[in-house]
Structure formats: structure tokens, C-alpha cells
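ESCALATION

Customer reports they have been waiting on this structure for their group meeting. Please prioritize. Original submission:
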Amino acid sequence: MSLQFNPYAAQILEAFQRVGLNKGQAYQPDQIFQALDQLTGSAYDRDVATQIYEQCTPNQRGQVQIEEFSQVLISADALLKKKIQDSERQIQQIVDDSKDCQRNIQEIQYTQQQNQNGIDTDSQLHLIIKSASGITQDFIQSQVSISVDNNEQIAQQSGRDKSQAIFNHQLGFQIKTGKENVTLSLFIYDQNQKKSLVGQAKIDLSQLQDQQQHSLQLQLQNDRQQFTTPTIQFDVHWIYNKLKYYKEMIQKYEMDIYQHNNDIEDYKRDLFIVQQPFMDNNQRQNLQSSLKPQTSSKLQTNSALFYQQQQNQPSIYKPTPPQQSFRQNQIDIPQQNQAEATEELSDEIYYGFILYLLMIVLSLFQCFARPAYVDIILGILYLLIIFRDCFTPEYLKFVGAITVFTIVLDIFWISIYKNWWNGTDKTLPTWGEAGDPIVRITIVFCIFNMIVKTALCYIIFHYYKAAQSNQVLKFKAWEFEFQIGILKQNLFTSDKRLLS
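Update from on-call: job pushed to the front of the queue and completed.
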């Protein structure tokens, strides 16, 4: 087995030296790949070789030290062995969990009791309230009230991270019909202990009939049924038929075991590719004959995951009783009330925000000598993209057009005063000759503003592309955080107010 073969640095360097690559020297990737071909006796897998090379630090000529390349080979060998061992442990854990499910089925198949709605009499809805984020108001304490029809329970805030309230509170409710109204209400307390409602969200039990645990993030609605910025993150799990649940879990475990076995075979093939240049012929032939034929596409995604320092292992469902099963993060489903694609472009949003603030400040100074009110209005229109979530292609085109229009106005204004700068007549209608330094400073500010607005045209273009692709962006500045691209509101709401 290749798991018992452990190549070490001196062995690898000695093999490279046999084919002309000496210690202390740097080589181009083609030279290293050709050396691997010679050591293997056939064409070495270029995908694997390229991935190993990309983990090295090349010099300005694209060359890497042979010692560093050898060390990355050793790291790849160790990482693949660890993946094989982890997968084998996961298979054993899944086998044990499957046996637990089988025992549970034997215990309940003759004792299961259901009501007239086809729901177990001991059916439970389990919730773990994790956190609430996006709270813009000042608060010192918060709580989440969860009500299932007339049954209400409270999750108290246990910690806080900037504008995010941490709860990590577990609750349970009995479900009888599957049509119960499940409502989550977020309350905050200010310094005077005044309690106020931030918003509410509802859980549709019909979306939980797959009996799997869901990690959800719901956007809250205010008392006018309008979506607001704050969201609540929680896990929810409803098992209404334990017998059906355990049978489905066994089927899933069988699929997981099959997938893990395929992964192990892929890892072994990759490990053989890494090790074979440094084996003797007998070891190479014995190991190659022990590998199973590959049935999937070449290396699938395993090669791409070779040398990542952080491994993304598949999540495993924990069977056991539903109460214990609920505590595990089994499945991540798409967040409700959000766009299809999500991408964080917080840097561009942040820098655009700073540039527009700078433009507003420069425009205010220019108002001493010229009416730069259009620039101020433009800055406000940009701020509405963030604080109003006017992240629509039409609105962004409108803001971009005004930005270009103001640049044209700046050029026109400067052209009027281009002869004044070096002229002898410094008399101004408002300031007289005393206005000379004011106009000079205004012209300088106007030029800086043109440069800033040119950069903003580029940023607005990126926003326009993101809005067309239905992306959700995140704006983060200091302790504030806004999600942009969820509501995509018009400039005015239905009640004709600028801000809700």
C-alpha cells in the first residue's frame, strides 16, 4: 500500500539529481516536469505537476528551487494520506450511525402513534436561534420571541459582536397539525430599558417536510410589512414521522458510504501519482495493480483539492434521536428573500462610498465661487444606493448619466475661467479682487472633483453589471453593515416617502 511508502526530502532530491536537477538550483516548470517523466518512465500527470508547482514561490524568471518543490511533494503526500484516513473514519462513523437508525426503527415500528393529520403524537419542532445581524438602532440588550400559535418562548441575547446579537439558544415546540403559525419577533432594549420591535419573520412548516435540518437566514419585516435590513440566523428541524425519517437516513448513509469509497479510490490514485517517481519498479507495479479502475472523470475534484490547507469535508447527518440530530449543522439551504447569486464586493462599495463623501466635501467648498449643487445632489443619490437599496440597473444608469453630466459641467466651467487664472483682471462680481484666492482654490477643487468622478464612473459601471446579474452585495463601514440588492426599491415607496 502507498500509505506505507513515505518519501523523504533526501530521497526525492537524490532522485532529481539522477536526472540532472541539482540541489540549490532553481528550474523552470518544464524542466521539472520532464525530470518527473524520466523518473516515472512515462508522461507524468501534468495537472498534478502543475498544482504542485503553483504551491511554490517562483523567482522573477518563473523558476522554483528544487528543494521547495520537493517539500511541497512531501506535503501533498501527507495531506492525501490524511484525507484517506479521515474518509475511512467517516465511513466507520456512518456505519455506526446507520446501525443506530436500524435499532431505532425496530423500537418504534410497532409503537409509533400518529394523530388524524398523519403526524407523530410526540412530534417536535426544534429551533436554535443563533444570531441577529444588521441592527442599525442603538441597543444594550435584545431578545427573540418565538410563538407557535399560542405557545411562546423567549431566547435571550447571550453576547454581542458589533451590530450582531448572539443568542445560541435552543427551543422546542410540539406540532400537532403542521399548519401552526410560527413567528419570530426581534425586540431590542435601549439604555432606558425601553422595549421596541425591530421586525418579524414567519416560518412555513410546509417547507420543512423533508425532515432535514435547515440553516436559515430570514429577513425581518416591520409593522408595515416592509422588509428591513436586520436578519435572524437560526437552525430549524421538524420530524413529524420518525419511522420515515430513519428509513430515509439509512438510504442517505448508503449513498454517503458509496461516495466516500469513491473518494478514497480517487485519493489513492492521486497519492500513487505523487509517489511513483520515487518508487522502485516492483513497488510501482504492485501498487498500480492494486488500484481499482477509475469510473468517474479524471480525478474529478480531488486533484484540485490536493494542496489546500483547509479541507472541506462533506457534512454528515447524525442519526440518533431527533433531539441530538438537531444539534448538528447538517444541511445549508439557500437563504430566503435573497437573490440567486451572492457575492461580497464590500471593498468596491466601501471605496465608492468614501469617494462620494469626498466629492460632496469638495463640492461644498466650491459653492463659495460656483453653484456646485448638482454634485451635492449626485452624492446624495449615491448614498441612497446603500441606505435605500436602490440597486437597480435603471437607477444606476441614471446616477451614471448624472455623473457624466457633472463632468461636462466642470469642463465647461473651467473653460470659462481658463484665461482668468493668468489674466490681469481679477475683479469678480461678488468678491471683487479679494476673490482671487477663492476662485483659484475652487478651480483646484473642481479639477480634483473631475478626477474623483471619473473613478466613480468606473465604480458605477461595476455596480451596474452586478445589478444585472442579480447579485447581493454587502457594504461594511465601521460598525455598520448593509445588504444591497435584496429589496431593489424605487426611489419612492408606495406611500411616497423617501425613507421608510
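Sent to customer with the following note: The chain has three domains: 1-111+246-306, 124-240, 341-484.
Escalation resolved.
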